[in-house]
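Title: Prediction job returns without error message
Component: structure pipeline
Severity: low
Priority: P3
Assignee: unassigned

Description:
Job completed but the reporter wants confirmation the result is attached to the right record. Sequence as submitted:
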Amino acid sequence: GNINIDGAGSVNATSTGFDAINAGGDLAIKGSGNVNATGASDGIRANGNITIDDSGAVTARATKDKGIGADKNLTIKGGGTVEASSADGEALWSGDNINISDGSQVKASSEEDATIDGKNSLTVTNASLNASGVGYGIYVYKGITFDGATVTVRASAGNDEASALFTDEDDIVIKNGSIVDAFAEGQFSTPIFTRN
């Protein structure tokens, strides 16, 4: 089924053996509350869509897998703060599209993998994103659009390939006064790269 968290309260979820919050369907966090999820595997996970429409604060930490992972769309809006991190996997992952908008402030980091990984597109509109990862900062397959966004992306890979912004099958579009700071550090490093 679905998980719906709504209102001005607080939810603290910690798992020492599996995910902290896991929805078999969709997961929605709405209102002005605070959600803290720390998982031995995923922090926040859904087999469907994840929608964070929250003016409060959402924090998700993962030890072995994804900070926040949605099999379908991942949407962050509402003007709040979202902080996602993983010690071993991606901080933000989506099997479909990732959309960040509406003044939201997102900070994501991974110690061993790409920070943001999406099977379709990433769009950041009138919001801020700070991402720091290994190998890739942002890796999506079907395009990146920054529209009135403030974005800082870092990627490092030592003696390997590093790309801060990377997409396989579409364009990278930066428009409408966006401010983008992209940095890649590695033996073969490209801050902004598309194979399209």
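Comment from assignee: result matches the submitted record. The CA atoms of residues 135 and 162 lie 5 Å apart.
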